Amino acid sequence: MNFKESINWLNGFQKFGIKLGLDRIKKLSKELGNPEKSYKTIHVGGTNGKGSVCKFLGSILTSSGYKVGVYTSPHLQCFSERIVIDGEEISEKEIVLLFEKIKPIVEKMKKKGNTPTYFEIVTAMCFEYFKEKNVDFAIIEVGLGGRFDATNIIEPIVSVITNVSLDHQNILGNSIKEIAKEKAGIIKNKVPVITGARDNALKVIEKKADEKNAPLTIIDSSNWKKLSDKSFLIKGSLNDYNVKTSMKGSFQGTNIALAISVVETLQINGIFITENSIFEGIKKTFNPGRMEIVSEKPHILLDGAHNIACMNVLKETLEKDFKYDRLILVVGILSDKNIEEMLKIIIPLANNIIVTKSKNNRASNTTFLKDKILKLGFKNKIVVKNNVSDAVDYAKSIANKNDLICITGSLFTVGEARDALVIV
Fold first, then answer.
1. How confident is the model at residue 304, as a pLDDT?
2. Would the pTM of this model clear 0.85, i.e. be above it?
3. What is the arrangement of strands in the sheet containing 224-228, beginning at the earlier edge strand?
4. What pairs with residue 408 in β-bridges?
5. Measured between alpha carbons, how far is residue 324 from residues 218, 296, 305, 327, 350 in Å?
6. pLDDT value at residue 18
7. Going from the N-terminus, what domains does the chain have, and what CATH number goes with each?
């Protein structure tokens, strides 16, 4: 197989959708020799912020001289974004070699009526790749939920649950408590766990940590203070850290505090990490598509806010951290999200709205989105563009230099916007 054939083969498994459970990934991993046991792992779950925490951690550990794999999902533009070692994405050649190794195992499972999912295949590939490259650490982001997520066969040295909010209710449950139970499923016996969860979600996590005799560290607003646009004072358990970041938004204070708490936990357990590597790692961290400014005059902001909590953070950041004459909102949301509640949060800030649709098969119909916006009482101009590229072009054509174009609603929408803006 060449690279294109490999990706086409993998994409054929998307039709099987999401099937939570650990039997298939255990089978895949066993056939590969359980590669995930070959290195130290850090497991990062939660509703929002887990990708940023993964990247902060990967950057800090790399800055301290370790070889570090980072596994995140979904990708914005290229499949290779999912599997990274020391900041370098997996190559097309390496992807093909991994597919050639895993395909016979998958085909054998298919014949037995035990077909793995897209995410399970990619997760097994990631585990094997990190073994082949002899990483010291692997930072593994949960795909969905936690308890029955394919990543949950790892035996981490630290677990992280960033926060818990309503998302994927059709799969994880309709209440915060139900969703928190799924997220807390990554907590392992006597393995330290760090969380930024609150209220009812925190109670669930505290109970599970107690059952598992897992030391629990809770991160809240008392652990960090915003000093300027892109600098924070982080109050750790071992030290205080005055850090700088290129990533915008007050919420990054929590993400950085979570990452530093993980680092301090590793230090307490005998892993050498320099204080300078914390500063350097945080400063170097970049997470595309999340509060990412890609242009000025006009400013173009990409933010893959895809649930109610994310949209509230975006609203707060737009109000506190940006100055503009008009907000031109480009929005495309997946149909299985809480569309009305997400729109209620963000549309009051907009002067113009451009409704669009990503190529993802779960993307909401543009007419449906427009009708929702009108029913919510939006009185200004709404334009429909049925693909993201046209929506971006139109937004740029109507924007003045002091306006802000914000592209949001889905990571898939943002990824296609990055393609349209020729950002690599």
1. 92
2. yes
3. 224-228, 231-235, 240-244
4. 303, 331
5. 37, 11, 20, 7, 11
6. 79
7. 3-284 (3.40.1190.10), 292-420 (3.90.190.20)
